[in-house]
Design goal:
heterodimer; A: FAD/NAD(P)-binding domain; five-stranded parallel β-sheet; 10 helices; 26 strands; about 20% strand; B: alpha/beta; Rossmann fold
Chain lengths: ~450, ~260
């Protein structure tokens, strides 16, 4: 369409990187604010990580949501109310496909096209270089702004362990099907939601399962009192119970339901409830109790056929699955643009707005204690309104920016979390939504 | 101001699913016009639109749907029903509500970015409409105020031009329900999401929604009401039903072209 060099300037159009859940929300909300949008998607279909056909998708056959439906759906496009409390990943994909079709987003997406680089040109505009995924000629187009929604669950974080292991080591991202576990001796490393899910899966397939965790966690059940646990928890927040009281209730409830897990060899949590990303798994204690999962400490060293654990004991798995999480990656951007630290973790206002570049934003780079989609939606609404305000009322935009720069990190990010690598973008969804709402009100058009 | 982002009611107490009655009329030609979803008012069901408006809308090229919100549901449940149905349609949907159904649509617009919306004889000022109903039909309305069932009268809904026999037939199909208090006591609807164009249509001779109320509602959405003098409250059933729906679809064609 725009092959000739003289129409490479897309004027007021906004470039969106990625057509996963966050990218789709960004397209829709930018369109609602009247922007022309070009979205680039390296795959040939929408859905990002939720699309199991995509080679970077982390989903495995049994992936279900861990936050319940009402807390996970887009706020302005609900999932069918006949769906289960915790839909399957294939339902999430069909939901995203319907969202895209419903709002006619497909016509703004360039599939099979990846963004190679985005370079800031003098006036706050961006030269975006794209090319067909996996090669081909590249072309450069100029945009008024760029919204990055490239996801953060596709670049596996490596397990750093000394020594060599003779068996098979795969990252959780490469785990797709329970058949991979059948009749094997499996070590699952990592106590996050993925690690627990895979350990449970392995308990039903493998001959032996070890589950190695570095620290103790609070393993929340998926249901409490017959309701999805996150809905029960939202009830506590609704009545504005103070954190201490909620922590007390959390401990009591867990003591009465899941009970003490240390007798299965799991470490005592080294943090209070609500101070780490929630791990939601009802089945892990069940399989621990049946002896089908053996809880073991951190991996210390690989030694040929065996693995040495932190307590000095040795086990001999033939398959190691590392559920060690993912790293954020923005290869097409200069790290300075996002104020990234040496590990590549950006420092952004509300985890969305580049601090020094008003026309650069990231959507969906959050780890909330609820579903991500609602937060990504409101983030993209805020980004779209912000970009609109810059054009329509620069004076007010400057005032908003002034006011926002005074907003402290503590007011919107998670107050207190265990200091681990994964928690850098953890947010408390309620505090976050309230902050975004106050930003939206500041930017509300004068009536 | 109520938060649009923090939705505890939906998070902690989701509206339970139900089987919803949706009557569909496929469009005459598939030239990509958006679906239109009709929402009936108090006591009415999808049938009220199936009489004339549904087929007429489809003949003008719009995939047309009429929904009967759940029996006995409150405003929140009815808004849920509308949003669920709209989101289940293949494209971004135009919402058209009549009477108390227009109130449901006004609320639904805060929850779903409607392609456009039409509020027909909208009952958005509950107290005003209650006053009008008490004046026009005291014996049918008073029991409902006291917690009994509502009996709507011919004078309230139809003009004298509609044959008595026909009017009685329609009245017979209207549910004699117990209206909820919130129909009158509800707060104003939140700002619509997605900034849809909104058209208000009505009749200056409506005995449920006074002219002033029409003007107020239209002003709230930045316009003036489109009026059909001589007609009663039930624009889609009364004699001359073709005129309002023609005007609505002309407006839709024009608006959707410019959007």
């Amino acid at each position: 369409m725009y092959d000739t060099p003289d129409i490479a300037d897309r004027h007021d159009a906004v470039c969106v990187v990625g057509a996963g859940a966050s990218g789709l929300a960004a397209i829709k909300n930018l369109r609602e604010q009247g922007f022309a949008v070009d979205c680039y998607e390296r795959e040939t279909s929408v859905g990002g990580g939720w699309n199991w056909r995509h080679d970077r998708s982390p989903v495995y056959a049994s992936t279900h949501l861990i936050s319940s439906r009402p807390m996970t759906e887009f706020p302005d496009f609900p999932m069918p109310d006949t769906w289960p409390d915790y839909p399957h990943h294939s339902q999430v994909l069909s939901y995203l496909e319907r969202y895209s079709a419903h709002f006619g987003l497909g016509e703004h997406i360039w599939f099979g096209t990846e963004v190679v680089s985005a370079v800031l040109v003098g006036d706050g505009r961006w030269d975006v270089t794209t090319r067909s995924t996996g090669g081909g000629a590249s072309r450069v187009q100029r945009y008024a702004a760029i919204v990055v929604a490239n996801g953060h669950n596709w670049a596996p974080a490596p397990l750093r362990v000394e020594g060599d292991f003779r068996g098979e080591v795969i990252h959780a991202a490469a785990f797709k099907d329970p058949a991979q576990l059948r009749n094997r001796k499996v070590l699952v490393v990592g106590g996050g939601n993925t690690g627990c899910d895979i350990a449970v899966e392995a308990a039903q397939q493998a001959t032996t399962v070890w589950h190695s965790t570095r620290r103790g966690y609070w393993y929340a059940p998926k249901y409490l009192f017959g309701r999805p646990a996150d809905q029960v928890n939202a009830g506590l927040l609704r009545w504005r119970l103070p954190l201490r009281l909620r922590q007390f209730l959390y401990r009591r409830t867990l003591a009465l339901t899941t009970g003490d897990l240390t007798r299965y060899g799991l470490p005592v949590p080294d943090h209070r409830p609500y101070e780490a990303h929630p791990v939601v798994n009802s089945q892990l204690p069940y399989y621990l109790g049946h002896g089908l999962i053996k809880a073991v400490p951190d991996v210390a060293r690989f030694d040929g056929a065996s693995v040495e654990l932190a307590d000095g004991s040795r086990i001999e798995p033939d398959l190691i699955i590392t559920a060690t999480g993912y790293l954020p990656r923005f290869e097409f951007l200069d790290p300075g643009l996002l104020d990234s630290d040496p590990d590549g973790r950006p420092d952004l206002h509300l985890h969305a707005f580049a601090r020094k570049h008003p026309t650069l934003a990231v959507v969906g780079l959050l780890q909330p204690d609820a579903g991500l989609l609602p937060l990504a939606h409101w983030q993209s609404v805020a980004v779209a309104r912000w970009l609109r305000l810059r054009v329509s009322d620069p004076a007010r935009a400057a005032a908003v920016q002034q006011k926002e720069s005074a907003r402290t990190l503590r007011s919107w990010s998670r107050r207190q979390v265990v200091p681990t690598r994964r928690h850098w973008f953890e947010v408390d969804y309620l505090a976050y939504l309230r902050t975004v709402e106050s930003l939206l009100r500041e930017m509300e058009p004068a009536r | 101001m109520k938060s649009a982002l923090v939705r505890f009611a939906d998070w902690t107490d989701p509206v339970p699913p139900v089987e919803r009655e949706v009557i569909a009329a496929p469009p005459a030609d598939g030239d990509g016009k958006p679906p239109v979803l009709f929402v009936p008012g108090l006591g009415h069901g999808a049938w009220a639109y199936a009489e004339h408006w549904l087929a007429h809308t489809a003949a003008r090229g719009f995939p047309a749907y009429a929904l009967t919100p759940r029996a006995g549901g409150d405003l929140r449940a009815h808004v849920h029903d509308v949003v669920q149905t709209a989101a289940s349609l293949p494209r971004q949907t135009v919402l058209i509500g009549h009477g108390a159904g227009a109130l449901v649509v006004a609320y639904a617009m805060a929850r779903y970015p409607a392609k456009a919306a039409v509020l027909a004889s909208p009952v958005l000022d509950g107290w005003v409409s209650l006053g009008a109903a008490l004046r026009t039909n005291p014996f049918g309305t008073l029991p409902a105020v006291l917690g009994g069932r509502l009996r709507l009268s011919r004078r309230q809904l139809f003009s004298a031009a509609l044959p008595a026999e026909q009017a009685e037939e329609y009245l017979g199909r209207i549910d004699r329900l117990r209206p909820r208090r919130e129909l009158v006591t509800h707060g104003p609807a939140a700002t619509p999401v997605g900034d849809p164009r909104v058209l208000v249509v009505g009749s200056p001779d409506d005995r449920v929604v006074p002219r002033k109320s029409l003007d107020r509602t239209a002003a709230r959405y930045g316009g003036a009401p489109l009026l059909f003098p001589g007609m009663g409250h039930d624009l889609m059933l009364d004699e001359g039903w073709a005129e309002p729906i023609e005007a609505i679809i002309d407006w839709l064609d024009k608006e959707l072209l410019t959007v």
